[in-house]
Specification:
One of its GO terms (molecular function) is fatty acid synthase activity. Keywords: Phosphopantetheine, Phosphoprotein. With 114 residues, the protein is mostly helical. Among the domains are: 33 residues, no CATH class; 41 residues, no CATH class. It is 32% helix and 4% strand. A two-stranded antiparallel sheet has the order 1-2. The protein is extended, with a radius of gyration of 18 Å. It starts with 19 loop residues before the first helix and ends in a 9-residue tail after the last helix.
Length: 114
Amino acid sequence: MGDVAVIGFSFKLPEGADTSSSLWETLEKGRNLVTDWPASRIIRNAFHSEELAKRNKLRSDGGYFIKDDPGAFDAPFFSVTAAEAASMDPMQRWTLEVSYRAFENGETFPTRNC
């Protein structure tokens, strides 16, 4: 395998850590980015139980959640129709956004023909 040069990067972590400075601050302070279940994502009381014998229940009080709205996406920017955007998994939309930011970070701007 030949040499590889990383010229740009981007990421989206919980608690809004999506810049290099926020990443380093999180690492330096040893922060844990776990949060409670967001009320907008789950009705916690309907699924949570501390009783180990209960099946199909959540036993954790939280997790690692991205603060961004999973439904928010600039479809026209990526030449995606509204129907296509609606059928995409939020992770696909976030991957497009984060990938584009990695190109920006590396000052390598993709053309619309990519």
